[in-house]
């Protein structure tokens, strides 16, 4: 029988599993705290559990999800990017970003991505598979364990790594529930952000569930003609449908929505696009994150100049639209999603060629 990965289970499922082992139900909450509050790497470290229970767990369960394949640090040592190898040989990337008062983890929800956004390294590689709940959660636990060694803790999580979180809806929201449980990592729901390119049905489902974790919509263009070129899913749910859904999300949740805008030199950083965006979101409870593009090998566009960024932001302000230019982290280590995975595969292929 294949061992059960305990990070795939919510607390109710974990309780049922513990009871199935012939143990009292209260042991499940103790086990849950070891998994999340203490982020232990093996069952022997769970010292308030009986030896017999630990032996049962070692036989019937596992905590292992992936192994570190490659790691990179930015030159300022504030960004760390890890490439994890999954059990089936797929790769995912996770990034730790240190800020003055925050320790933010950017996590993946899929191996690859089916959305095909042309400027994104993950979109360029295509879709391999969804991540399990354990594979999502374990990325946060991995860094929680590491940060604890220096007296730090995970303060924020952004689901902006590889994949489209709402395309892996059930596993994504179950992972959210595990990460926000009060007896676990106890992350505030509003300390986690889910990025989406605009999967309209999933966004509506999310709103109907009254979830308080904020959504960040990867908009990147304010006209269908421009967005069709950058975000292929726009051909299925165009900007009008997306904006109607965004309004619905705000109405149902009462939460401010964020729009992500990767500024591409002479592509979507023009004053015409700023005007179009200003008209599109004027009066909406929203905020715009302006992000100079992180270049990828598969896309010829480059990041906007500082003057273009400033002009774009100033024009948005004329419409009363608040915006922030995001601090670019990890540019020197190609921290954009998918880039380290591509490098690892290329190096592996080159190694095979050299050894053949």
Reconstruct the topology from this structure:
Blueprint: E1 4-5, H1 11-20, H2 26-36, H3 51-60, E2 61-62, E3 66-73, E4 79-86, E5 91-98, E6 103-106, E7 110-112, H4 121-125, E8 127-130, H5 133-148, E9 156-159, H6 169-180, E10 192-196, H7 200-208, E11 215-218, H8 224-230, H9 239-253, E12 257-263, H10 271-281, E13 286-292, H11 306-318, E14 323-325, H12 339-355
Parallel strand pairs: 1-2, 6-9, 9-10, 10-11, 11-12, 12-13, 13-14
Antiparallel strand pairs: 3-4, 4-5, 5-6, 7-8
Helix pairs in contact: 1-2, 5-6, 7-9, 10-11
What is the level-2 CATH architecture name of the largest domain?
Alpha-Beta Barrel
Q: Tell me the number of strands.
A: 14
Sheet-strand content, in percent, reads 15-25%
Side by side, the strands of the main sheet go: 3-4-5-6-9-10-11-12-13-14
- Count of individual domains: 3
Report the CATH C-level class of the largest domain. Alpha Beta
- Number of helical runs? 12
Distance between the termini: 38 Å
CATH topology of the largest domain: TIM Barrel
State the helicity in percent bands: 25-40%
Word description of this protein:
The protein is an alpha/beta fold. The protein folds into three domains: 59 residues, DNA polymerase, domain 1, CATH 1.10.150.530; 132 residues, TIM Barrel, CATH 3.20.20; 112 residues, TIM Barrel (Alpha-Beta Barrel). The chain is 38% helix and 19% strand. It is built from twelve helices and 14 strands. Strands 3-4-5-6-9-10-11-12-13-14 form a ten-stranded mixed β-sheet, sandwiched between helices. Strands 1-2 form a two-stranded parallel sheet. α5 runs parallel beside α6 and α7 packs parallel to α9. The chain is elongated, with a radius of gyration of 21 Å.
């Amino acid at each position: 029988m294949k061992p059960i990965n305990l990070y795939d289970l919510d607390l109710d499922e974990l309780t049922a599993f513990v009871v199935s082992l012939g143990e009292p139900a209260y042991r499940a909450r103790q086990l849950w705290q070891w998994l999340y509050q203490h982020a232990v790497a093996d069952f022997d470290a769970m010292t308030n559990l009986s030896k017999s229970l630990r032996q049962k767990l070692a036989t019937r369960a596992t905590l292992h999800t992936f192994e570190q394949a490659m790691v990179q640090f930015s030159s300022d040592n504030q960004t760390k990017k890890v490439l994890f190898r999954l059990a089936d040989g797929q790769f995912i990337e996770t990034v730790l970003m240190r800020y003055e008062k925050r320790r933010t983890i950017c996590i993946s929800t899929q191996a690859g991505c089916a959305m095909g956004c042309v400027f994104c390294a993950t979109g360029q590689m295509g879709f391999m598979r969804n991540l399990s709940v354990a594979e999502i959660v374990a990325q946060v636990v991995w860094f929680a364990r590491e940060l604890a060694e220096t007296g730090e803790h995970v303060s924020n999580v952004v689901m902006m790594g590889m994949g489209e979180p709402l395309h892996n809806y059930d596993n994504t929201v179950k992972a959210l529930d595990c990460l926000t449980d009060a007896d676990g990592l106890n992350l505030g729901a509003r300390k986690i952000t889910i990025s989406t390119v605009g999967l309209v049905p999933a966004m509506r489902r999310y709103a109907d569930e009254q979830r308080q974790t904020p959504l960040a919509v990867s908009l990147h263009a304010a006209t269908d003609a421009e967005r069709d070129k950058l975000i292929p899913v726009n051909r299925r749910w165009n900007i009008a449908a997306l904006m109607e859904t965004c309004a619905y999300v705000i109405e149902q949740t009462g939460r401010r929505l964020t729009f992500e805008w990767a500024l591409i030199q002479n592509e979507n950083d023009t004053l015409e696009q700023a005007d179009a965006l200003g008209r599109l979101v004027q009066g909406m409870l929203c905020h715009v994150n302006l992000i100079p593009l992180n270049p990828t090998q598969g896309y010829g566009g480059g990041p906007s100049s500082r003057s273009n960024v400033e002009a774009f932001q100033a024009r948005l302000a004329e419409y009363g639209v608040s915006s922030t230019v995001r601090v670019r982290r990890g540019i020197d280590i190609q921290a954009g999603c998918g880039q380290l995975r591509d490098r690892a595969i290329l190096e592996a292929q080159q190694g095979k060629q050299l050894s053949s």
